[in-house]
UniProtKB/TrEMBL annotation:
GO MF term list: aldehyde-lyase activity; transaldolase activity
Record's function text: Transaldolase is important for the balance of metabolites in the pentose-phosphate pathway.
Family matches, as Pfam families: TAL_FSA (PF00923)
A Gene Ontology biological process term: pentose-phosphate shunt
Pathway: Carbohydrate degradation; pentose phosphate pathway; D-glyceraldehyde 3-phosphate and beta-D-fructose 6-phosphate from D-ribose 5-phosphate and D-xylulose 5-phosphate (non-oxidative stage): step 2/3
Protein's UniProt name: Probable transaldolase
Species assigned in the record: Solitalea canadensis (strain ATCC 29591 / DSM 3403 / JCM 21819 / LMG 8368 / NBRC 15130 / NCIMB 12057 / USAM 9D)
Lineage: Bacteria, Pseudomonadati, Bacteroidota, Sphingobacteriia, Sphingobacteriales
């Protein structure tokens, strides 16, 4: 399973990349706003800076909600770098835009997906990635991981090539469950990725190993 980080924060992207486990990045308009990135030139420059930090792809979301606007914006975003994947919302014009981009060979990520039906539409329109939001479904007492399982089954039934990008991942158990189900990619915060490192027995074991080594070294002096 590929690991994407869900942020527009360059320091966090670099930290995950330096850990050696990061594949790509997803962003959204809220995450860009959080970093104070506004204005066409700043947005394009920021996406370029993100692309320069990672090996795999970077999802850049359109702001437009009409077909023509999404096409113009998506083409501008795709021209920034070959790592850019154009992120398009799951609305009717978005589905048309997915089809358009797919025919033009521009990779897409269909975002704001909350049902298996929406995921099926995204695949039929030729989306490269579909982003079901696990955490936001959990937030409203609906099983987000069940949706990942349903989409996996449907895509495997028909051999759809659209990759399942489990989004709105909030904690390490989401990541582990997504891996068990067979999501192709997960995107989450740095905190969730780093939380995978933690186990108290690792810390206790390491302390013991180092203490035993120090004792033996002192005894042989
Ligand atoms: C998806 O690509 C979104 O950027 C993201 O995963 C949303 O996560 P959130 O629900 O934690 O905001």
């Amino acid at each position: 399973m590929k690991f994407f980080i869900d942020t527009a924060n360059l320091a966090q992207i670099k930290e995950a990349q330096d850990l050696g486990v990061l594949d790509g990045v997803t962003t959204n308009p809220s995450l860009m706003a959080k970093e104070g990135i506004t204005g066409d030139d700043n947005v394009l420059a920021h996406y370029k800076a993100i692309c320069d930090l990672v090996d795999d792809n970077v999802s850049a979301e359109v702001i437009s909600t009409d077909f023509e606007g999404m096409i113009a914006e998506g083409e501008r975003l795709a021209a920034i770098d070959k790592k850019i994947v154009v992120k398009v919302p799951m609305i009717a014009d978005g589905v048309k835009a997915l089809k358009y981009f797919s025919k033009k060979g521009i990779r897409t990520n269909c975002t704001l997906v909350f049902s298996a039906g929406q995921a099926l539409l995204a695949a039929k329109a030729g989306a490269s990635y579909v982003s079901p939001f696990v955490g936001r479904l959990d937030d409203i007492s609906t099983d987000g991981l069940q949706l990942i399982e349903d989409i996996r089954l449907i895509y495997d039934n028909y051999g759809y090539e659209t990759e399942i990008l489990a989004a709105s991942v909030r904690h390490p158990m989401h990541i582990i469950e997504c891996a068990k189900i067979g999501a192709d990619v997960m995107t989450g915060p740095l905190s969730a990725i780093k939380a995978l490192l933690k186990h108290p027995l690792t810390d206790i074991g390491l302390q013991q190993f180092l203490a035993d080594h120090a004792k033996a070294a002192a005894a042989t002096k």
